[in-house]
Amino acid sequence: MSGTVTDPTPTNPTPTPTDELVVSGLSVHYGGVRAVSSVSFTVGPGQCVGIIGANGAGKTSTLKALMGLVPRTAERIQFGDHDLTRVKARDVVRHGIGYVPEGRHVFPGLTVEKNLLLGAYVRAWKGETRSTLGEVFELFPVLGEMRHRLAGALSGGQQQMLAVGRALMSKPRLILLDEPSMGLSPKLIEDILAVLQRLSAAGHALLLVEQNAKLTFEATRTCLVMENGEVAMTGTSAELRDDPRVRQIYLGL
Question: Which residue range or ranges hold the ABC transporter domain (predicted)?
């Protein structure tokens, strides 16, 4: 990803003050096992909120639950004016939420451009869609250079760019990102940080799940610490970064 991120503001989502994600009492069960228990938090426009914790803490299950990808119950899942508590997964994106899954999950047998256009499936095909494609290529020039190459031929960092770009194609106001730095070199992780900061500055709300503590604390202002499916601690990223309990128990530092 090095040398491939440029400065243009990406796909400005023109948020409104009401574009806030409000989650209350979110729980996830897999059979008889409760993976997430009564989690509550908010993410406002232009905010980047992090979720950290050990493996198995319930971080990924929380994101999947918000997208409707796993069985869930909740007192409230509200984004802007929309109640998403019972909205099916295929319709969540229509309400302005993008998703960058763990492991990227690009379509290896399709070209870069076709992968990106699939991200715009909720939008009517028109000149604006082509304009958004151009904005993604401005943000990630290497994707424009490789637009006709199969996604399976891209490096891990390039596939991560593709996954983020695909999410941007629906012009989301909120983006959920699951482990975007996984498997990347330190230099590429710095590039991911720059992208997250640019998206937040452009008005996107971001909810970031990350094992990389340094990236999380630099990209976010607020963090939740999850343990055994519950929110064990909340606070500013600066406070949690220096908290000895977080460093020892949750981050192994």
Answer: 21-253
